[in-house]
Fold this protein.
Amino acid sequence: MIKRIVLLSIFMYVGPVFSKGICDVSEVKYQEAFNEYRENGSVSFIRTMLEGGKFSSDEKALNQSEHFQRIESSFGDVGTTSVIIKKSLGDRSCFISSILEYELGPVFMSLMYYKTSKEIIVSSFSFQTEAEVILSSNVLFQD
């Protein structure tokens, strides 16, 4: 009887962690990376975002922080971010589109999160100052 109570208690504590959807966890990971950006700059943002994935040690991918530095020189400091789209694609993938709001204008970003056997990683990402490049016309023009 005590064994059942212990097992039930463990399941009640651990169960919600495993039952969170891929997109819920991905959004939290995105927000953590953005917080790194605000606190420690674009290099830390890119490193945190790509941690554990195939690009985590790729210098070309890590150099994307230079693009964010150029954006900052034109648009000012980053202020806030919002997730615009969060879409589960299958059991292991989540597509997120977000807006990063700087002092003088927005930057739009898309990320593909993927659940490996060990963790959730970013498998691809892109960003643009033009919304129409990142967001579909369905999102831009629907009421």
